[in-house]
Amino acid sequence: MKNLIKKHAEKVRFGIVGMASTAIDFIILFTLVALGLPALASNFMSTSVAMVFSFFINKSFTFRNDSAGKKHFVYFIIITLIGLWIIQPIIIVGVEWLSSPILTRNCITETIVNTFDPWFRPDYLVIFFAKCWATAASLIWNYLMYRRFVFIKK
């Protein structure tokens, strides 16, 4: 059991940092959407803030890699941008397109809207659902690419 925990400790730390980064991302995203900004523009801004936070915490806490310098930061940015600004928007748009009619026109959504009106709109549920799928995809992409190109084990 001890070996199992030790073997996966880095992944657990990555998950913790990922949850914190995701919380920052979601809070900023939904605040900006609630203020009237479009979902994709809000996603661009929220993921940018979360990305900078993620690099420094992953460097020091997750991968415990003090040798990651400017070159590795550039790799981190490129890998993260592919995940955040290519993979996530494709998934968000796709999931919104596929699930919008399902998630916005049902009795559960109507109950939520009526309970939390005016703070909750049906399209928030669609954005949340899409963002969750997009986050999962970019999480897998990021871990695999960070381990290979950014925080390389010596």
Q: Could you characterize the architecture of this molecule?
A:
By secondary structure, this protein is mostly helical. The chain is 85% helix and 0% strand. It is built from 5 helices and no strands. The chain has helices at residues 2-34, 39-62, 70-104, 107-116, 122-150. It is elongated. The two termini are 25 Å apart.
Distinct helical segment count: 5
Task: Report the uncertain regions.
Answer: none
Using the alpha-carbon principal axes, give the shape.
elongated
**Strand count:** 0
The end-to-end distance, rounded to whole angstroms, is: 25 Å
Order of helices and strands: HHHHH
Mean pLDDT across all residues, rounded? 86
| Helical amount | over 70%
Rg calc: 18 Å
Strand residue content: under 5%
Helix/strand class: mainly alpha
Largest sheet: none
Record keyword descriptors for this entry.
single chain; 154 residues; mainly alpha; 85% helix
Blueprint of the fold:
Blueprint: H1 2-34, H2 39-62, H3 70-104, H4 107-116, H5 122-150
Helix pairs in contact: 1-2, 1-5, 2-3, 3-5
What can be said about this structure in brief?
The longest helix is centred in the middle third of the chain and has 35 residues.
